[in-house]
C-alpha cells in the first residue's frame, strides 16, 4: 500500500507532561495521564509517490511552511527509516477544531500522521510501537494512540509510550471546553517545555506528581470525579505556576480564563461536580459527568468572554479510515 488515511482524537491530560528529560527523544520529565476527546478529530492522508522530489504537506487547507513543515518531514523520515524506503510523500491533514489554543492539536495530528504514514509505507505497527513513534513527533501524541484513558510512562526510548488504563466506555466523563480565545499562542507547548527547568517551582511540581498520578488512577478506576478533580486542578495550577515563573515567563491566561476558573469554583460550592484544567493556552477544560454536561455547557455559554463551548466524551484510539482526503 502506498496511500493510507488515519483519524485521531486529541487528548486532555489529567496529569500534565511539562518539561523533558530528553528533547530529541521527547522523553518527559514526569509520567502523564489523559483522556481522548471523541468530539474533536484530525484526519490525515499520506501517499508515498515515486518521482516526487520533496514532501508536500497541506494542513487545514494551507501548504505547511517553516517549523510545522519541518516537523512533518522529520516524522515522515522516521516512518521511511522504519520501512527502509526513501520515497517522498504527499500529506493532507485536516482538524475540525482550532490549533494552537490549548486544545492539544499536535496530539491528534502526530497520532494520525504516525498511523497514516506507517500504513502507507506498508508497515503494521502494534499499539506500543505506534505510540512510541507518535511520541517522537509530539510527546502528547503518544497518548492519543490507545483508546479511552491512557498513561504515558517509561524513561527510555524503548519503554516510553502510552498504555490504556481504561476503555472509552468505562466512564461517561465529559470535557466541556470553554473557548475564550482563538488566537495562535506566541510560545506553544513544544517550545515551552524547554523553559520548565528555569522555574524554581518545577522541582516541587515534579515531587507532587506521583501522588496526583496515583489518586487520579484510582479515581478513574472507581469513577470518582471528586478525587480526580482536586488533583487535576492542582496539577494544572502547578503547571501554570511553573509556566508563569519560567524565564522568560509564560502567561497564557486572559481575564476570561480567570472568570471561568472562578465560576467553576462557585459551582463547586453549590455542590456541582465540575473541575477545571488547562493546557498551554487560555481555554478552560471543565470536567464533569455526562448527566451534568448540558447544565455546565449552558452556564459556560452565559459567562462573559466565553466565545464557544466544545463538549466531548471519551474518544477512541487512532484508527485507519477507508476514505482518503485526496
Ligand atoms: C501542556 O506534546 O505539545 O498540553 O512533545 O514538544 O510536541 P511536544 O509537546 P506537547 O506538550 C503538551 C503539553 C501540555 C500538557 C499535556 O498534554 O500533557
- Quaternary status: single chain
Overall 3D shape: globular
Could you describe the largest sheet, including whether it forms a barrel?
A: 6 strands, mixed
Instruction: Write the H/E string, N to C.
Output: EEEEEEEEHEHHEEEHHHHEEHEE
Q: Based on DSSP secondary structure assignment, what is the total number of beta strands?
A: 16
Helix count equals 8
* Heterogens: ligand DP6
Q: Which secondary-structure class do the elements indicate?
A: alpha+beta
Q: Termini, distance in Å?
A: 15 Å
User: How much beta, percentage-wise?
Assistant: 15-25%
Please give the order of strands in the largest beta sheet.
8-7-9-6-1-16
User: Radius of gyration in whole Å, from Cα?
Assistant: 19 Å
Helix content: 25-40%
Low-confidence stretches: none
Indicate the mean pLDDT.
Answer: 96
Topology:
Blueprint: E1 3-8, E2 11-15, E3 20-22, E4 27-28, E5 32-36, E6 42-48, E7 56-59, E8 62-63, H1 66-83, E9 89-95, H2 105-120, H3 127-137, E10 149-153, E11 161-166, E12 173-179, H4 189-192, H5 202-221, H6 225-244, H7 255-269, E13 274-277, E14 284-289, H8 290-301, E15 308-312, E16 319-321
Parallel strand pairs: 7-9
Antiparallel strand pairs: 1-6, 1-16, 2-5, 3-4, 5-10, 6-9, 7-8, 10-11, 12-14, 12-15, 13-14
Helix pairs in contact: 1-2, 1-3, 2-3, 5-6
Amino acid at each position: 500500500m502506498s496511500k493510507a488515511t488515519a483519524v485521531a482524537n486529541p487528548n486532555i491530560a489529567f496529569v500534565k507532561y511539562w518539561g523533558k528529560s530528553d528533547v530529541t527523544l521527547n522523553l518527559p520529565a514526569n509520567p502523564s495521564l489523559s483522556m481522548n476527546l471523541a468530539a474533536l478529530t484530525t484526519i490525515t492522508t499520506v501517499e508515498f509517490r515515486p518521482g516526487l522530489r520533496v514532501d508536500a504537506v497541506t494542513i487545514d487547507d494551507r501548504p505547511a511552511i517553516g517549523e510545522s513543515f519541518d516537523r512533518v518531514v522529520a516524522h515522515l523520515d522516521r516512518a521511511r527509516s522504519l520501512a527502509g524506503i526513501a520515497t517522498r510523500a504527499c500529506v493532507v491533514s485536516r482538524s475540525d477544531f482550532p490549533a494552537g489554543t490549548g486544545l492539544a492539536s499536535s496530539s491528534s495530528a502526530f497520532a494520525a500522521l504516525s498511523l497514516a504514514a506507517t500504513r502507507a509505507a506498508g508497515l503494521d505497527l502494534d499499539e506500543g510501537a505506534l505510540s512510541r513513534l507518535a511520541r517522537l513527533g509530539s510527546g502528547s501524541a503518544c497518548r492519543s494512540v490507545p483508546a479511552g484513558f491512557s498513561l504515558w510512562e517509561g524513561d527510555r526510548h524503548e519503554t516510553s509510550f502510552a498504555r490504556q488504563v481504561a476503555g472509552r466506555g468505562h466512564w461517561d466523563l465529559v470535557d466541556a471546553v470553554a473557548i475564550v480565545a482563538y488566537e495562535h499562542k506566541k510560545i506553544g507547548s513544544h517550545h515551552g517545555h524547554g523553559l520548565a527547568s528555569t522555574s524554581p517551582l518545577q522541582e516541587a511540581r515534579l515531587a507532587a506528581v506521583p501522588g496526583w498520578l496515583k489518586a487520579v488512577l484510582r479515581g478513574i478506576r472507581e469513577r470518582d470525579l471528586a478525587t480526580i478533580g482536586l488533583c487535576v486542578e492542582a496539577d494544572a495550577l502547578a503547571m501554570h505556576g511553573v509556566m508563569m515563573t519560567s524565564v522568560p515567563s509564560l502567561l497564557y491566561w486572559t481575564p476570561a480564563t480567570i472568570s471561568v476558573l472562578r465560576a467553576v469554583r462557585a459551582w463547586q460550592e453549590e455542590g456541582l461536580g465540575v473541575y477545571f484544567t488547562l493546557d498551554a493556552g487560555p481555554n478552560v477544560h471543565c470536567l464533569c459527568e455526562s448527566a451534568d454536561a448540558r447544565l455546565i455547557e449552558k452556564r459556560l455559554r452565559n459567562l462573559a468572554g466565553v466565545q464557544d463551548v466544545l463538549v466531548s466524551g471519551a474518544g477512541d484510539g487512532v484508527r485507519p479510515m477507508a476514505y482518503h482526503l485526496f
